[in-house]
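User: Hello, can you help with two protein structures?

Assistant: Certainly.
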Amino acid sequence: MSEERVFLCSAWGIRKLRHKKSGPDLSNSKKSETIERKNEMKELEKTYDPSQIEDRLYRKWEEKKYFHAEVDRSKKPFTIVMPPPNVTGQLHMGHALDNTMQDILIRFKRMQGYSALWQPGTDHAAIATEVKVTEKLKEQGIDKKEIGREEFLKHAWAWKEEYGNRIVSQLKKMGSSADWDRERFTMDEGCSRAVKEVFVRLYDKGYIYKGSRIINWCPVCKTSISDAEVIHEEQDGYFWHINYPVVGEPGRFVEIATTRPETLLGDTAVAVNPDDERYTDIVGKMLELPLTDRQIPVIADPYVDKEFGTGCVKITPAHDPNDFEVGKRHNLEEINILNDDATINELGGKYAGMDRYEARKQMVADLDALGLLVKVVPHSHNVGTHDRCKTTVEPMIKPQWFVRMKEMGQAALDIIKTDELSFVPEQFDKTYIHWLENIRDWCISRQLWWGHRIPAWYCDECGETIVSRETPTVCPKCGCTHLTQDEDTLDTWFSSALWPFSTLGWPDKTPEYEYFYPTSVLVTGYDIIFFWVIRMVFSALEQTGKSPFKHVLIHGLVRDDQGRKMSKSLGNGIDPLEVIDKYGADALRLTLITGNAPGNDMRFYWERVENSRNFANKIWNATRFIMMNMEKADFSAVKLSDLTIADRWILSKVNTLAKEMTDNMEKFELGIAVSKVYDFIWEEFCDWYIEMVKPRLYNDEDETKAAALWTLKTVLIQALKLLHPYMPFITEEIFCNIQDEEESIMISKWPEYTDEWNFEADEAAVDTIKAAVRAIRNLRTGMNVPPSRKAKVYVVSAKEDVRYIFESSKSFFATLGYASEVHVQEDKTGIDENAVSTLIHDAAVYIPLEELVDIDKEIERLEKEAAKLAGEIKRASGMLANPKFVDKAPAAKVEEEKAKLAKYTEMSEQVAERLAQLKK
């Protein structure tokens, strides 16, 4: 290696020199640099207080535009779109985890030199916002219907302005480094234009149509909802068995069983299986529909399972999706017997106006009175409920707008079989595939005012439907100028399905769209794969011809410490802002990622947050120690050959760590990566290396002090960079105080593995030293020797290379091993016979007994301990020899005494062995 000294960056600032470099650059930067000391050394506060640094640093990052990504063809793009939180939203642990994971990835890629765009924004959240605004108006004595649509929308926009930025400010408290300059809203001008464009394109292609089909109707929200918004919950209910009289055959009945007897009013047939011999003669006959004046036919259809129930099924086409299909096959009438609020409508006769459950109760009583109620059987079954308001939904036939899913669903299925789209972990492919294989046409119209209004108009004269990007003024069919726009709005997910490309300027071919799309990775929970992920995929494939993202990184739920889902009803939710106020954002972020594996739920423990805070304190205190010692030597001209075995060991360790962490993070193993840097900083760097170098720092004559200081600073900075994506605030504060070469850790270079810092032999050597130190500490602990009592330590090895390791490491080995002196030799010459020993690989360690303990006092102590143990053994043996105790005492108590006897016996043997050794 060249003897030319390579000048290094220090904590006091730099000026760059034109310098011909011929040796290894220890700063791992491209240019050599020298030192210009400042008059005053920077200092960290004595204690780490996140509340004093986090807001200040975040303002700095925003002001410096570090989050902003530009189209830069000299760099590779890396793009993440933020799942847009609702404008009504409050930050919860799910948001905290989701956004922490995204921030880790975007900070990592930014440091790697990518043009890293984290595209943020918020969702208008149609139903959620409309409910909130309606409730607010109600409190003011204002009825939504009385003020009308336009006035209501003014209130909705005012709500959005007042509350829409709340969750964004909370995400900032988390340290989210999203490009807020590019923040979007699902109802902003650009996104709204994209929505209209997609609607018109799909309509023109025949993929969007309007028709009367069975949809999920929420009687509380009074709107249709999609299949994905229906949660099927197991509920206890009943099967009501009812006799339908056969017309013209007095005393003959067809027995059906139903879980919803009130829908009987909408029955238009009873179906049997065509292969069911029990009912061959009745197919085609008419039945009296109980409680009505109508007659309905018996039909044969393979839909009926002849093995289930009575084999006869009531068909209600307007209130059951399967019955709807049967009705279409047999041209049955569709009779809707419910109002929008789930009361019985005017077709219900005497039951009109009753709530669905009130009508059910009355109808069952009337059937019983007529002798037509055969029996009532308890039955547990799946009941569909609206995921938002938890109301039981009603399948109901209504005219709605639908998206035909056959072709687009197949395209989304095909793409998962290629390398253009993958789930992490892979198991969530199954969820994606299962949903697509069973997908039905998507009901996209909602009976709401807040949202994207459907771009369809109807001619008041001829009824022509006009779908247009712009508001039409004349009917293309009859020339009439009286046109009325459809009252409905689009499902929220229709606009958020376009999020990966609408936010980048599509349908225009903007520079951002051309550069940042397709996006790189989507981070989201497994609970919205079918809500959102699938819709983004098929929408993107249809509109852009590309998958919207390369990878879908799935995370689980954050549960409480008992494993329960956090919810308002349980009162077990934990506010992330409360955690931040108490422990800081870094501690919360580290807690959420530590032990986190893709796709798995995690439990939240306050103790873990405290551990994360303690880790931050550990780094802070270690840095203060380093900075307080940095003026003890000028380390500006240190070269690799100046480093000691300990320095090369820790440098090699952080070098390998960079390689492993990079590999883990590229594979989205964020929890594994952070555990490695955590262990490195806490154990290897703080607990081992800093303790190793202290004797050199405290010794004014030690010529390796400069090498120690350079290594301390260099390794700390490397470790801070590796930790930065996880704990951005504390790493930035320390980084900006311990060096002046770079203005922010955010835009510094991600550490890369270099062969120059690979010292495998030194790693093995220090591992040998550490093994000896652990052995000495275990031996001393077993003999109750306090750390303050020093003792001679002899290291004996027949191998010259092992002896060299200990000879060259005496200074720190003595400190770590509590040694007053260290002697390294080839054999046991000069070592007392009573010396205690411990073995490590290829060496033995001896310590003179009298150096560790006062032998007479130790014998006295051990004899007392032996007597005490003998008493315990006698007591336990006596109890176990007593048949009354063994036969009558609880089995657990007997086992407990047996365990005690075994423990006392083992301890007694150890004490006897020690006494024998001391009395030699």
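That covers the first. Now for the second protein you mentioned:
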Amino acid sequence: MRQDLAPADIFRASVLDDAIPADAAELARLRGLPGISVSDLRPGMRTELARLKAAPEADPADDRWVYYPWRSALVAIVGATAFRAIRHDRNRNKLTIAEQRQLSEQSVGVIGQSAGHEIAYIAALEGACGLLRIADFDTVELSNLNRIPGGLFDIGLNKCVVTGRRIAELDPYLPVEIYPAGVDESTMDEFLTGLSVVVEVCDSLDVKLAAREAARRHRIPVLMETNDRGLFDVERFDLDPDRPPFHGLLGETTRADLRGLSNRDKAPHVMRILDPEQLSSRLAASLTEIDETVTTWPQLGSDVGLGAATIATAVRRIGLGHALPSGRIRIDLERELDGLGEPDRDDRRFAADTAPLDEYDEPRTALARVLHGIERAPSGGNAQPWVVRVGDSAVHLAVDPARTSGMDIGFRGSAVALGAALYNARVAAAAQGLLGTHEIVLGGTAPVSAFLRFGTLADPELAADYPGMLTRATNRHLGDGRPLAPEVLDTLAVSAAAEGAFVRGVTDRAGLGEVAGLLAESDRIRYLTPRLHAEMFGELRWPADDVRTGLDLRTMELASDEYAKLAIGGRADVMAHLRDWSGGAALGDYAHQRISSSSALIAVTCPAGADADLTDYVRGGSAVERVWIAAQKLGLAVQPMSPVFLYVRDDNDLRNVSAGFTDTLASIHKRFSALMGIPGHETVTAVLRLSYAPAPTVRSARLPVLGSGN
């Protein structure tokens, strides 16, 4: 059977199963016909299926042969489930798999197959429905081919048949029903029965009104697009069945008033619907020329395409239960194109001076050097969560509760930072001959505070850390993976022990790889927890910002692709989608890559275990700073890591830090402690990544301590 002999009303392809005797006989008959082309597309489709990240099970018994009589073609394809998975895979995750399934339950009707042809096709293209019902009594003429994406071979065919054939060639599994006689008030109820949404894009005003009156009875939403300045119209009769058709713009006009009107007589009613003041100047001018210099109102294929895209978006919103109220809007591309402008090629976030930040004039007085040492102490997010007061005989440091964060559970992280500041003050005091006793005080006006009294005590070991304290910095460069010398951890353990703490860690490649995966997952959770995400990006500072608090982005040592990822990672709306999809594995790449390139990951712990109070965390913070300085003396780059569970002590803490990921965090925390060899009677005060790497690009700036409460 040749293409030119296919019946003019055939629009469905025959889907044949060669396991069914009758279908097998038909296939044998078709293969024997002259001029039949036979194609087996299954090998390529199976290759595509194997590449999918979420491929369904595909049983070869589900494969089918499809016969297209108008093309005299027989094609073998995979079964419907595999076919749809492949064809819709590139929709993800603009449409998730679950959303695709939800949309496949919709039935969409399209009245009118000039502009409606493209609307029906795009609905099928995107998988926005599981059934299409289309209506048009007219046949394709050459003048229709300015907006119907057909060809010369379609001239003379019913417009529904042309649409149906095009969709069958796209997806032979999608049911399409046609009304080639069109619809009127006598068939409208039948057409609308079972539909989820109806799109009305026909020319007959009486049919337009009949469609809306029937849609009110059936409680079906009606969508319309007029192809001029992108006018899009929504009538949610499903939500408000008492609303008047056309938003009441036609007043008391009835179907009888509209039936059989000439183009000229239609014009007043059309104007009431479209609002003549909002028409494009070219359409408005053309309307005055109907039956004079033009036959009817003009339409452009690009306008039809825009309208189809708008309708498809609305159909998705209805099918997914998203907000779409009754009303109208204009999506005017001409107006938008009038607003074209040059993109901003200058990133002013980098407009500040990029000179290294570690150049400074060393303070001249001994006391000023002690205060400068406090300034140089590390803190989570460079928050500098302390208030410093200086008296005649002592320096008082206290945790500032206003500078806490979601991960600073019970001010434990702030207490660690206070301990590091106290250690630096002791080091500077020892080097300047001012060292006296120190005391840590729990409670009072601050969660925890510390006093360093001035005196004349000698401590050569503390004083020896003074140069290292001044140059201590976070180094986030990737490491080269060299193993640590055997004595390195022993040396660091001695430094920790001097402050009453311990060093636990992992140095083997397998262990580092596993812990990298755990902390990558922790970072993913940090991104996906709204409060933690907001605080994390609230800490970041571009060079054009005041970089004396927060994290100067230059210290992150980001590659160009990581800057691009950061721009996406900072968007809360993107994180909301990833959270809904249980996705975002790539959000942990930064942590994973850096730990994997390291020589060791260590935890500095204090011996108090579950009974640790803030004074233990302060002492642990002093140990962290002492270990950090010792590691840099050994030529190591040091980067603190901040797993979400760092200061978690119990299930209640887990819920407070990230209620949506409590179970996952508990599992990660348990596995992390086991890998790091942290016994239950010890509490982690910091996790440090050690590596051999280039010097940091810049060091973080600091606020002057006397500006923070003195």
